[in-house]
UniProtKB/TrEMBL annotation:
Name of protein: MBL fold metallo-hydrolase
Single GO biological process annotation from the record: hydrogen sulfide metabolic process
Domain Rhodanese: 270-361, 375-463
Highest classification ranks of the organism: Bacteria, Pseudomonadati, Bacteroidota, Flavobacteriia, Flavobacteriales
GO molecular function (one): sulfur dioxygenase activity
InterPro entries: Metallo-B-lactamas, Mito_Persulfide_Diox, POD-like_MBL-fold, Rhodanese-like_dom, Rhodanese-like_dom_sf, RibonucZ/Hydroxyglut_hydro
Top-rank taxon: Bacteria
Keywords (A to Z) from UniProt: Hydrolase, Metal-binding
Length: 471
């Protein structure tokens, strides 16, 4: 059966392409639809359907642009109520793609409209299931997202529905079916997904905690809800965009790809509420950056950290990038609904400096330099990794303020004494450093190689939760 996974690592996202006899279907596409259209063109195929497994929270889907550009029919599962023309399928309904069949299996739990698509080949053999966020490799979808859009859909209600969907709709299927999930490790849509992105249903029944045959519904709900962290703030906003509709990516790109001289860029920053977002690497940002800009580097989990750190997807953005990286930055912002880039600094930081404008720096030190300092003093160290990372192992005496909580925990960062920031590699700590710098902190340094470097030093580390807090 001709089914291809199209995986985008920075979002831990998988879309799927199905083709038979000149007809194609796309499942859960990303915002930029050109690659899917080009893929179908290579097969001389017409995109007949765009199947959505649910209204996504972690990205804005490309279904509307695909429909506009190809005429494809958008298909959702039962109970979906899109604000635009689409087919809402019935449970058990079958759609034909060439000689293949796609059967709708309603599997509520992650969301109410969540649907699994059973793929059946030209011989009538069941080949695999495109599960969306219902079933991952090693995990299942978190059931606490829908309540942020519809308050009476509690996580307990949805977890109970997910238990029934898995037991009654998924687990009775053949063990040799291939599972094609919407996400892999790194996505915030689950809590313990595998780095593997496909597996057989039979193997998952043996190793996936949520598919244990002897598990009661009460045990399932308890295990599923234990350890869930708060979802990123942009998730509900992306859900609403996917339900109600959104601007074409072409419009978003046209608005954002507006080159600005340093003078025009500075004027726009002063005259609007736009956020200056620098997407260069942490080291380059530390060396020199436009005053009051924040750093979230493209070379990392860019879109997810934008979603974590910028509360409103409607926020206007002014970009500072490496030359010729503007299109990539605008595209990746749009994937998570940040559609309001209004221009970029033409020529980047080099143009800014040549114009004679002031720039700022952030002081960094290596883990080896920190080790020498640690031997002779007791520097205040603030670790911005996730709590689970900190609990696993951390520098003795360090304070933990996870990066995604920094905006609500600014009081944890002193202004009357120096401190040192670190994360795992230096990526997240520079995001934190840029936010603190923007808000008036100057009494800190950042560890350039992070905890990965600290592990190689003789600095004392602890494997238990450190109770130290700032007074």
């Amino acid at each position: 059966m001709k089914v291809e996974q199209i995986y985008t690592g920075c979002l831990a996202h998988a879309a799927y392409y199905l083709e038979s006899k000149g007809e194609a279907a796309i499942f859960d596409p990303l915002r930029e639809v050109g690659p899917y259209i080009e893929r179908a063109r290579k097969d001389k195929a017409e995109v007949k359907y765009v199947f959505e497994t649910h209204f996504h929270a972690d990205f804005v889907s490309g279904h509307l642009d695909l429909k506009a550009k190809t005429g494809a029919e958008i298909v959702f599962g039962p109970t979906a109520k899109p604000g635009y023309e689409a087919t809402v399928a019935k449970d058990g309904e079958v759609f034909k793609v060439g000689d293949y069949k796609v059967k709708v299996i309603h599997t509520p739990g992650h969301t109410m409209e969540s649907t699994t698509y059973l793929l059946i080949d030209e011989k009538g053999k069941e080949h695999g299931i495109i599960t969306g966020d219902t079933l991952f490799i090693g995990d299942v979808g978190r059931p606490d997202l829908a309540q942020h859009v519809i308050s009476d859909l509690t996580e307990e209600k949805l977890a109970a529905l997910l238990f029934d969907s898995l037991r009654n709709k998924i687990m009775p299927l053949s063990d040799d079916l291939i599972i094609y999930p919407n996400h892999g490790a790194g996505s915030a849509c689950g809590k313990m997904m595998s780095k593997e992105t496909t597996d057989t249903l039979g193997h998952q029944k043996k190793v996936n905690y949520a598919l244990r045959a002897d598990m009661t519904k009460e045990e399932f709900i308890k295990e599923l809800l234990t350890g869930l962290t708060a979802p990123p703030g942009y998730f509900p906003q992306n859900v609403l965009m996917n339900i109600k509709g959104y601007e074409s990516l072409d419009t978003v790109m046209e608005r954002g790809e507006r080159p600005m001289t340093p003078e025009a860029f500075e004027a726009a920053a002063n005259e609007t509420d736009a956020l200056m977002l620098d997407t260069r690497d942490a080291e380059d940002f530390a060396r020199e950056h436009v005053p009051n800009s924040i750093n979230i580097a493209l070379d990392g989990s860019f879109a997810m950290w934008v979603g974590e750190m910028i509360p409103d997807v409607r926020q206007q953005i002014l970009l500072i990038t490496y030359p010729n990286k503007e299109e990539e930055a605008i595209t990746r912002l749009s994937r998570v609904g940040y559609d309001h880039t209004i221009g970029f600094l033409d020529g980047g930081m080099e143009a800014w400096k040549l114009s004679g404008k002031e720039f700022e720096t952030i002081s960094r030190l290596t883990s080896n330099e920190l080790e020498e300092e640690y031997k002779t003093s007791e520097p205040l160290i603030i670790d911005v990794r996730k709590k689970s990372e900190f609990d696993s192992e951390h520098v003795i005496g360090a304070i933990n303020v996870p990066l995604n909580e920094i905006n609500s925990q600014l009081a944890q960062f002193p202004k009357d004494k120096p401190f040192i920031l670190h994360c795992g590699s230096g990526y997240r700590s520079m995001i934190a450093a840029s936010i603190l710098k923007q808000r008036g902190w100057n009494n800190f340094r950042d560890v350039s190689d992070g905890f990965n470097g600290i592990l190689k030093t003789e600095i004392k580390k602890s494997e238990y939760i450190c109770p130290t807090t700032l007074l």
